[in-house]
Amino acid sequence: MPEEQQSASREVAGSAWPRYSAATTGFRNYWYPVMFSRRLGRKPVAIKLCGEPIVLVRHAGRAYALHDRCPHRGVPLSQGEQAFPGFLTCAYHGWTYDLATGDLAAVLTDGPDSPICGKAAVRVGTYPVAERAGLVWVYVGDQPAPPVEADVPSELLQPGLVVEGVFQVRKGNWRYAAENGIDEGHAKYLHRNALWAFWRKQSALTLFHMAPSEDGEWLMRVRDDTIWDVTYPRLGRWPRRHPWQRRRSGTSGVGIRLPCTLLNRQKGWTGYELYVPWDEDHYLSGLLATKRASGLEALKFRLWYRLWVRWVFHGQQNGEDQWMIELMRIPPERLYRPDVSITAWRRLCEETARRTEAEAASGAHCAGAARLAAGQQAQ
Amino acid sequence: MPEEQQSASREVAGSAWPRYSAATTGFRNYWYPVMFSRRLGRKPVAIKLCGEPIVLVRHAGRAYALHDRCPHRGVPLSQGEQAFPGFLTCAYHGWTYDLATGDLAAVLTDGPDSPICGKAAVRVGTYPVAERAGLVWVYVGDQPAPPVEADVPSELLQPGLVVEGVFQVRKGNWRYAAENGIDEGHAKYLHRNALWAFWRKQSALTLFHMAPSEDGEWLMRVRDDTIWDVTYPRLGRWPRRHPWQRRRSGTSGVGIRLPCTLLNRQKGWTGYELYVPWDEDHYLSGLLATKRASGLEALKFRLWYRLWVRWVFHGQQNGEDQWMIELMRIPPERLYRPDVSITAWRRLCEETARRTEAEAASGAHCAGAARLAAGQQAQ
Amino acid sequence: MPEEQQSASREVAGSAWPRYSAATTGFRNYWYPVMFSRRLGRKPVAIKLCGEPIVLVRHAGRAYALHDRCPHRGVPLSQGEQAFPGFLTCAYHGWTYDLATGDLAAVLTDGPDSPICGKAAVRVGTYPVAERAGLVWVYVGDQPAPPVEADVPSELLQPGLVVEGVFQVRKGNWRYAAENGIDEGHAKYLHRNALWAFWRKQSALTLFHMAPSEDGEWLMRVRDDTIWDVTYPRLGRWPRRHPWQRRRSGTSGVGIRLPCTLLNRQKGWTGYELYVPWDEDHYLSGLLATKRASGLEALKFRLWYRLWVRWVFHGQQNGEDQWMIELMRIPPERLYRPDVSITAWRRLCEETARRTEAEAASGAHCAGAARLAAGQQAQ
After folding, report:
1. What angle, 0 to 180 degrees and rounded to 10, lies between the N-to-C axes of helices A174-182 and A340-352?
2. CA-CA distances (angstroms) from residue A43 to A56, A86, A133, C70?
3. Most exposed among A139, B81, B83, C208, judged by the fewest C-beta atoms under 10 Å?
């Protein structure tokens, strides 16, 4: 996409991407992964997703998600407990909700004849929940939920997949994190001194373009060429090298897809980075390492993850990324050629993200018209 | 009040109680208890009351209260000291105020001929102060202060009363604390595992109504019946019991009165809870335990308070209440039958709280008209 | 200025000094001292000046100042490093700026043919920098910078001057700090118990007026008379004394000048206090002790500073000042006779501070008219 590359530096974020700019708390009508299944038990867990407070809880092997606010006096239901299995009871006055429906099934301080039970005004909202690949997925939106498989990367649905990883709530908007993830340019500079780069002879530049994967599932960074050494006028050669560093084949494939998922294919295993919208100022970072393996090979992979990947890739490198995510202040911004990865991702969101009822009603279904209008407002 | 009980769940806070909703920093024109007398000495003490910064200080056995701001450069007078007994001197430039009148009596850095002394523009506001029941009471308002006895519970004025307790500034609006105090419903659920409940067989429900005490001083919760066990459909029996728990006669009387005082009559002693408005987001919690006693009996009561009540009732149980007060997010709210205690308290405030000059002037003296208007605005 | 003294108490801050009131982040078009030269090396240093983020860095013996924001994605350049001497490289994507011009000289992740290099839209703003008296001075403004000597006190330009001191970012607006510095009144009360006052018999009052120094460089407090003891009606004698305290000749001269510099001439050495505007809520406090000396005498002065002045004058006394600066809440204010020092300083700023382009364009060059208009708006 040479045309794309030329135009990237002229893009102005925000005005050119009205839907993306508006998605401060993420795109709705998607399934989002929020935690490891093995971490969810009888005890309620409070999360935020797309800005909404949600309580997760497990009963009889199944995960449930409710809006995390008791309609009585506004206390979070996540402060309560399953006083009766299958029901969540508010800690304050014992209002007791059916996990499956959100109905007020009983009020433990008002007797069995309580006239308020079952009324629609005191029903608590529920969210569709599914479990795939060892993760809990929650659907937020105003449209009927599609099958969860629509939003889970297909490789995560393979049988026999070992999934390791870590979830953490972090400062910063989810889009900064996602753009940092798909961004090709920063890796060679920001991470030049990372531990994993110590033995590796790094290239000076990677020429690439963005293109859909064959199955259409991912927007991929496709490498066109690698340049090993360059000399900058007035400055000199770059990058600097140590004599012990050797060329190694690096990442074999990086891609991104909606709603917030990065693919990072490595030799022998596959990484995923999840930038789940929490609220405007925080995202839930999920870092996964996966491999099809069983028996001793699976155990080896788990050990290797917990002793190496967890600290070096999901620790130090990610710390450098987080440092930048918290420091970024955009707009305004001035993009350059490698930012085609970012603009292609923004365009993907702009044109293909599922629409809310309000968007659908206002006729904002014609992406072309929207972009045209936005372009006219751009400075 | 069966009619009351039915309508409670339909009440919408805020619109139905305009004066109460507006009283974010409390009702003015009342005497408020703010600290134990024995804690106030020569050293100035800074408090807030109804949002106003106030400095308290004692001289020659008498307590004084001044507005806690030097008119010169806005430094709190509570940072200063009694450089001359009976006068409070600002720490910055030595502006020296007469405790009794608030007049600027001298400026220690401008000489005896300072022309600014005694001028009305530099007088500091004073507040009526009284001491009763071992507590310091301060009057805030724009109307002439009534005798302090109008706002001190009459039982606190008895001679020979032993008063123990504790004051703490806490997060949360005073009304949340007051509503939690008079609220009957939460005690049986929120406090079900409190230490004092360990030996006590608790009832499932208390049927009650709200009514004035015989002397008209308190709005009381009057018990109509006690139900010991109930079975909820789909859930089962409640509450759960331990075999060692025995029925005990519980609280013999709970009432509330303006401006912010809860009465809690126990067997052999009387408790009070004070929810003094500090600012919009904080209240001063006062927890008192009182008993008419002298000599050895008084000493026994003091010991029993400090070794038991202080930790179990004024500690753990109150910690559970505070947990809820900080978590509550209303409006909106959905009330149920036991919330008649809350709505009766709101109505009491709405109809009987003393009026400010502004309210009196605007003719908002007809509570009926105000409620009617408010009802029309309700959603 | 007896007329001045009478009117001081009638002044209302704010309305009477429109330019001064507007200068929340300082007066622009001045050179400001921001750190000791010896502290600035290859490593970038982040500061704020008049609310602007600025990065300082040294190369080949010369100090440079750039706007502290990479135009690409808004990351502070101070997080980067001189990957090539004479250039500052952003930590994120290796955008590399020429320290002398702010031009984007190279992008280490986009190759030597990067079309974005050298474009005006990605140039980073630079600030004039000079070094005098062992300090780094930075010019902020929209008018051409005058020679730095215009804003450096002339005594600081003497050859052979030893300069000791300390810089600290502190809470509070720079004007509160400057007014506290020139304020005569508070020293005798606020600092009455300071360590340096232990042996010194303090006077009760100092009569003074404000007048320009002979060379016109400073607005000086000129002592007219000293009164050792006074008796206040109803209070008594003041100040209190200890028998071991002796009269000593005190400060021989205190003056102030724009943009934010206090002169404090002592016996044998000269102090300066700098109240450099950082942002609206913080100032950079610079405390200097200077003396013309060489050889052993210079060494003695440095030792004496580091063992005595640093702790007693730049430590404890300054801590008392900072206590007040953080507590002050003005307007409103009520001024008294000694505040002529403050009002004279405000008038100096109002009438002589350099004007921004916007002020010059709007014709606000007639101080008289501005004050008249302001007076009509005053309450």
Report:
1. 130
2. 9, 12, 22, 46
3. B81
Residue A321 near residue A183, CB atoms below 8 Å? no
Q: Which two tokens stand for residue C228?
A: 């050792």
CATH architecture assignment, domain A30-148: 3-layer Sandwich (2.102)
* B327 DSSP β-pair partners: none
CATH 3.90.380.10 fits A1-23+154-379, yes or no: yes
**3-class DSSP state of C236:** strand
* Topology given in CATH for the domain delimited by B43-129: Rieske Iron-sulfur Protein (2.102.10)
| Average pLDDT of the segment spanning B143-148 | 97
H-type helices in B171-238, by residue range? 174-182, 185-190
Which of C4, C12, C176, C186 to mutate to probe the B interface, most B CBs <10 Å? C186
Find the residue in A nearest to B334 (Cα): A72
Residue A156: helix, strand or coil by DSSP? Answer: helix
Tell which phi-psi region holds residue A111, choosing left (phi > 0), alpha (psi between -120 and 50) or beta: left
Q: How far apart are CA A229 and CA A238, in angstroms?
A: 6
Q: With b meaning 16 or more CB within 10 Å and e meaning fewer, what string describes B310-322?
A: bebbbeebbebbb
Query: How much is the ipTM here?
Result: 0.90
Tokens coding B257: 């009165």
Question: Least CA distance to B9: which residue of chain A?
Answer: A116
Cα(B277)–Cα(B259) distance, integer angstroms: 9
Token pair recorded at residue C76:
């502070």
pLDDT at B314: 85
Distance CA B278, CA B260 (A): 12
The Cα of A70 is separated from the nearest Cα of chain C by a number of Å equal to: 40
Nearest CB to B94 within list C6, C189, C333? C189
Which residues of chain A carry a pLDDT beneath 70? 1-14, 249-251, 363-379
CATH 3.40.50.970 fits C1-23+153-379, yes or no: no
Counting residues of chain C whose pLDDT is more than 70, the rounded percentage is 91
| A-B contacts at Cβ under 8 angstroms | 91
The answer to whether residue A335 neighbours chain C at the CB level (below 8 Å) is yes
Q: Which of residues 176-235 of B touch C (CB under 8 A)?
A: none
User: How far apart are the C-alpha atoms of B214 and A379, rounded to whole Å?
Assistant: 74
Calculate the dihedral angle through the C-alpha atoms of A48, A50, A53, A58, rounding to the nearest 10 degrees.
-60
pLDDT attached to residue C316 = 72
Q: List the structure tokens of A104.
A: 């007020």
**Omega within 30 of 0 (cis) for the link into A259:** yes
pTM for this model (two decimals): 0.90
Dihedrals phi, psi of C200, to nearest 5 degrees: -100, 130
CATH 3.90.380.10 fits B1-23+164-379, yes or no: yes
**Plot region of A158 (φ>0 → left; ψ -120 to 50 → alpha; else → beta):** beta
Show me where the domains of chain B are located.
1-23+164-379, 43-129
- Both tokens of A85, joined, read 């299995």
Cβ contact B75–C327 (<8 Å): yes
Helix runs in C135-198, H state only? 174-182, 185-190
> pLDDT at position C363, please?
64
